[in-house]
Amino acid sequence: MELSSIIASKLILFVIVLARVGGMFVYAPVFGSFSVPVRVRVVLALIFSAIIVPLVPAPPGAYTQDVVYLTAMILHEVGVGLVIGFTGGLFLVAVQLAGQFIDFQVGFGFVNIVDPVSMRQVTVVGQLSYLLGTLFFLAVNGHHLLISALMKSYEIVPAGRGALALAEPGIMQLFGKAFAIGFKIASPVMVAVFLADAAMGVLARTVPQLNIFIVGFPVKIVGGLLMFALSLPLILVLLGGLFSGIERDILLILRRISTGGM
Fold first, then answer.
1. For residue 247, which of 158, 166, 146, 173 has the smallest C-alpha distance?
2. Amino acid 68: pLDDT
3. Do 126 and 96 contact (CB within 8 A), yes or no?
4. Dihedral sign, CA of 49, 159, 62, 54?
5. CA distances from 148 to 10, 140, 240 (A)
6. Could you write out the DSSP letters of every residue in 26-79?
7. Residue 111's pLDDT is what?
8. DSSP 3-state percent helix, strand, coil across the chain (nearest 5)
């Protein structure tokens, strides 16, 4: 094989690997964060791809000159990367969802702030919960688990193989699990606010002269946030178990994908 052909074949394989790595970087926690400059993300994706390329066998047809086939393979690899990144970041979304539940309970539902990083409107406790979840994700080396899942993905779903549509049932199950986890995280605050509302209702009946709206809002806010602070140790224990299972969840979905062909 001529030198030019070898270089071209390696370049094609690099682009195929880069497609999966880049797809993961779109949704993956930390790696896909808007707080990380685009140039940094691009450089990281290139470095990761350069490291992975020697470890990945060339897929069948990778050296073909059929542009349509190569384009389909690259798009397929982007899809696999998106699945990895999206699955890895799903439980951080659950943490933010829990914060939004708390916001609505304590009366912060209409108090939105602009996230200076993503330039989106977010709720106060929702954004705080997301930031705390991200810090804890890094503390338990969740980013290492994502990288490990990416490396193992080539053993389960070789480049150019698998059917992405088969990932849908697994992702939907994780959606339900994430919603339930968000509800569990917010449940102590929801119970505390419910009890505060019940107490305010009894107080309003016994002391009709009291303006219950003026008294009730501060009580709900202080009580809800205090309960959230007190429940943080339990929340961290729950998140530790979730984040440690990120790699397992990703690989389970990839095994679903691997049962189909391209």
1. 146
2. 81
3. yes
4. positive
5. 23, 14, 17
6. HHSTTTT-TTS-HHHHHHHHHHHHHHHGGGSPPPTTTT---HHHHHHHHHHHHH
7. 66
8. 75, 0, 20
What is the C-alpha separation between 54 and 57, in angstroms, rounded? 8
Say how far apart CA 257 and CA 262 lie, in whole Å. 10
Single-letter code of the amino acid located at 242: L
CA distance 161 to 167: 13
pLDDT in tens, 7-30: 777 788 888 899 999 999 988 888
- Summarised one tens digit per residue, pLDDT across range 98-119 is 888 888 888 776 666 666 555 5
Which amino acid would we find at residue 27? Y
For residue 139, what are the CA distances in angstroms to 77, 106, 116, 143, 239? 30, 29, 24, 9, 11
Tell how many helices (H) and how many strands (E) occur in the chain.
9, 2
Of the ranges 62-71, 75-84, 197-206, the best mean pLDDT one: 75-84
Q: Which residue has the tokens 């086939």?
A: 69
CA distance 129 to 120: 16
